[in-house]
Amino acid sequence: MSEKFTITLGRECGAGATNIAQVLSKRLGIPYYDKDIFRMVSDKSGVLEEFFHVNNERPGNNLLYKIIKDLYPKDRKPSLGKDIASPDNLFRFQSELIRELAENESCMIIGRCADYVLRDYDHVVNVFLCGDEESKIRRMMRMFSLEREAAIERIHETDKQRRKYYNYYTGKDWEDAKNYDLCLNTGNMTIEEAADIIYFYLQKKGYVDA
To answer: What is the rounded CA–CA span in Å between residue 70 and residue 176?
Structure first.
């Protein structure tokens, strides 16, 4: 394996990102981070972990941002003032931790606009995982023991929030392929096959030995 690198995994709900990250984590010998980032950033910031869970992938409500699109709330340092637990400030804390992880170890980061947070960093591979609706519905029903209608509702609501969240904090389109190095439709492949493709890409880019 070469020098440190970071894989960011953007994903539609039901595309299998967590399972793919688990497979890659074992093959690459590197950790992956998802909601455990909340515990880590809570320990670092002193803000209750519950605040991060409540605001998970939900956009803020900065009215100035809505008026002047070039002023993104991520561009400031985290505040320790009265707005310490605001959605925008929680995003800043979270982004600060993501940058620290990328600087100190090889790892994978699921969601959290990590591709955008690390946009100025070298040795970052940005992956987006999507799928046809039927495959995502089946995966959600199987993984979470959901009825079909509940799975459909969860997919639509989750992706709606992720889309808004990404647009709010980056000013970009979440599903725009130009934001990523590799886009995979996991609907027509197994988890292992998707992990194989990402691993092969890493080999071709020199991040892991062939």
So the answer is: 19
Amino acid making up residue 121:
Y
The sign of the dihedral angle between the CA atoms of 55, 51, 92, 182 is negative
Q: pLDDT by residue (tens digit) across 166-193?
A: 999 999 999 999 999 999 999 999 999 9
Q: Where in the sequence is the domain holding 75, given as residue range(s)?
A: 6-204
Task: Look at residue 125 and give its three-state secondary structure.
Answer: strand
Number of domains in the chain: 1
% of the chain at pLDDT higher than 70 = 82
| Total length of the chain | 210
Answer yes or no: is 133 within a domain.
yes
Q: How many CB atoms lie within 10 A of CB 91?
A: 26
Q: At 85, give phi and psi (nearest 5°).
A: -105, 15
Other beta carbons less than 10 A from residue 200's beta carbon: 12
Q: Is the pTM of this model over 0.90?
A: no
Distance of CA 104 to the CA centre of its chain: 18
Helix (H, G, I), strand (E, B) or coil at 108: strand
